[in-house]
Design brief:
alpha+beta; 4 helices; 7 strands; 36% helix
Length: 149
């Protein structure tokens, strides 16, 4: 990406190849302030060293990550039958499976507990489980890294 701006010793943005003093003299005070504001915004974008397509891709990825981490009220939307989700009960979080026949979430780690009483459980929030990486065999990934050296 070819930059159109550079920073002066005070951190202000200047147009490369244009004398900012001459520019200031040729514009009214309010006009110059508008140009300076636009120029500083362009310089801030250029300082990221990212192309517009890269920024758009990052925004899409961020939106997907936020959606994947969103807690969903169970009184608004229930998961599919048998879908494993994280559930929040007051201040505790469990991995559970939704059973629509009983209209309840069954937490895996406490289902075999003698203290487990499904009728007493009240689930307020749920979210999907994280998606595992494509290559979940860590040893294969390490071997690949070792082979590169």
């Amino acid at each position: 990406m070819t930059k159109l701006t550079e920073r002066d010793q005070y951190g202000n943005a200047d147009i490369i190849g244009v004398d900012s003093g001459d520019l200031q003299l040729s514009l009214e005070f309010d006009e110059f302030n508008c140009v300076a504001d636009a120029l500083n915004k362009l310089a801030a974008y250029e300082d990221t060293n990212l192309a517009p397509a890269e920024i758009a891709a990052m925004q899409t990825e961020l939106a997907q990550l936020k959606e994947a981490q969103r807690w969903i009220p169970v009184n608004k939307e229930l998961p599919a039958e048998g879908q494993e989700v994280e559930i929040m009960e007051i201040k505790e979080i469990y991995t559970a499976k939704y059973e629509p026949n009983n209209n309840q979430f069954l937490p895996w780690q406490i289902i075999d507990s003698p203290f487990f009483r499904p009728a007493e459980r009240v689930t307020h929030w749920r979210k999907p489980l994280p998606i595992p990486p494509a290559n979940i065999d860590g040893n294969a990934a390490l071997a690949t890294e070792g082979e590169k050296q």
